Amino acid sequence: MTAPLAIPPRFAGTDFTWGVATASFQIEGATEADGRLPSIWDRFCATPGKVLNGDTGEPGCDHYRRWESDVELIASLGVDAYRLSIAWPRVLREDGSLNEKGLDFYRRLLDRLAERGVQRYVTLYHWDLPQHLQDKGGWLNRETAYRFADYADRVSRALAGRVNAWMTLNEPWCSAFLGHGNGHHAPGLAHPRYAMQAMHHLLLGHGLALPALQAGDPAARRGIVANVGRGTTDGAREADREAAQLYEVMHNAWVLDPLFLGQYPAELQRLWPGSEPLVLAGDMAAITRPIDFLGINYYFRSNLRSNGAGGFVDMPLPGVERTQMGWEVYPQGLEDLLRGFRARYATLPPIYITENGMASDDKVVDGHVDDAQRISYLERHIAAVARAAEAGVDVRGYFVWSLMDNFEWAFGYERRFGLVHVDYATQQRTLKNSALALKAFLAARRR
Ligand code: FCB
Questions:
Q1: Which of 128, 145, 180, 389 could connect to 195 by a Cys-Cys bridge, CB 3.0–4.6 Å?
Q2: Does the annotation mark 355 as catalytic?
Q3: Would the pLDDT of 446 be above 70?
Q4: Residue 280 C-alpha to ligand 1 middle, in angstroms?
Q5: Is 355 in the pocket of ligand 1 (CB under 6 A)?
Q6: Which pLDDT band, with edges at 50, 70 and 90, does 93 fall under?
Q7: Would residue 143 show up in a list of annotated catalytic residues for this protein?
């Protein structure tokens, strides 16, 4: 019998939303079913050396075919909400018209979740850009922002009434920087100028999508999801402190300043001289359109030192607790960041923690998965969120990344983030102890 997850009283009421999260490319598999078009991640996976062990989106968790039992799994946990994403290349054809077969998958899924009493939090873009748009320049082409708004318009009309909350983009920082700045993610481009321009077009797409979502599905809430990172320094020099600050500007303010202050942080020019994006009149007004909530994804802290040239270098701290990703476990960073955002942004909307969790090398032994570190990780991070809430940050919900082990981008299937273990050969799902602990907490809350 696994003990319930220890949750601060503040979040133990039914007014706080508990959920689990996934994303289309990471779980669906079936990359060629029912007219799905290739995405930039299919192309990236097929490029030798880009993804660990040559892993691809197939078979994933085969969720496209196993969705019914997966919904039962989600419902069995007793969560309030499920965060999923829609695969753009499944639901729109190359000419921009709807692919009804692909849409039907999401209609059935969303309807069944509703029948099971699970709220639907739906991300429109969790990185699977249709390859045909990449062939025309992808996020470096301003036209992609308009295509994204059109996608939001068509899909929100088609699924109106089935979604509680829409999220336009997941982690534009990753799409912009990992995809275009250092090339670790699809489409694998690497230049700060590309990253800056891609970011602007991503955020513009978000801003243009908001009125489309409002018109298409007026009853649903609208938001965006940003990944944020804590940067501190163990260095003694003023330059080291500045380096840590610059890290947070580069990771957090690059996305949040345009959304809530209407401008890109000036420090980015120091970091990447001559990389300003082309911004047209009216763009910032679109980007700052009000949203109903902000999704925050948090995983770790980095220790920075000055690189002696106005930038920063990552100097991993020795002897600290880390996960299978090598990421430091640092719950305090989440409290610090949330409090910092509240201080910096007067128009900060209510916050949902839309992702938090950790990877470990989990094994099924006698039908059980002992992931004690994950239980502790979750409890400590939730406690940190509760401290931020005590300090006045308006946090409304928390989603664990992830419901189940899945395709962890450039790391393929080797890194396991799930509450539920997946045996990829048999597609057998096994609840890890962390899932049982969450379930026990939620069951006790409902009584
Ligand atoms: C985030 C992604 C999510 C998952 C976690 C571990 O950056 O949004 O898809 O891969 O990291």
A1: 180
A2: yes
A3: no
A4: 31
A5: yes
A6: very high
A7: no
**Alpha-carbon gap, residue 217 to 246, rounded angstroms:** 39
The rounded radius of gyration (Å) of the Cα atoms in the chain is: 21
Pick the atom of ligand 1 nearest to 415's CA: 6
Which residues, in sequence order, are CB contacts of 315 under 8 Å at separation 6+? 234, 235, 303, 304, 305
Q: Which two tokens stand for residue 408?
A: 């962890």
Distance (Å) from CA 311 to ligand 1 centroid: 26
Q: Active-site residue among 242, 267, 335, 355?
A: 355
Q: Can you give the pLDDT at residue 1?
A: 75
Please tell me the distance between residue 308's alpha carbon and the centre of ligand 1 in angstroms. Answer: 31
Note the pLDDT of residue 168.
Answer: 99
> What is the CA(297)–ligand 1 centre distance, in A?
8
Distance CA 410, CA 424 (A): 17
Q: Which of 85, 169, 171, 202 has most ligand 1 atoms within 8 Å of CB, for mutation?
A: 171
Which is the closest atom of ligand 1 to the Cα of 357?
6
Which among 84, 178, 355, 414 is the best mutation to test ligand 1's pocket, defined by most ligand atoms within 8 Å of the CB?
Answer: 355
- Which residue among the candidates 171, 248, 328, 408 is catalytic per the annotation? 171
Instruction: Check: pTM over 0.90? Answer yes or no.
Output: yes
Tokens of 106: 């999401």
Rounded Cα distance between 121 and 113, Å, is 11
Parallel/antiparallel/unpaired status of strands 428-431 and 420-423? antiparallel
Q: Give the pLDDT confidence of 370-403 residue by residue, as tens digits.
A: 999 999 999 999 999 999 999 999 999 999 999 9
The closest residue, in CA terms, to atom 9 on ligand 1 is 23
Domains by residue range for the chain, with CATH: 9-446 (3.20.20.80)
For residue 21, report the distance from its CA to the centre of ligand 1, in Å.
Answer: 10
Torsion sign (Cα): 137, 143, 148, 151: negative
Q: Is the CB of 409 under 6 A from ligand 1?
A: yes
Q: Could you tell me which of 205, 307, 187, 297 has the C-alpha nearest to residue 247?
A: 307
Q: What pLDDT, in 10s, does the model give residues 168-214?
A: 999 999 999 999 999 999 999 999 999 999 999 999 999 999 999 99
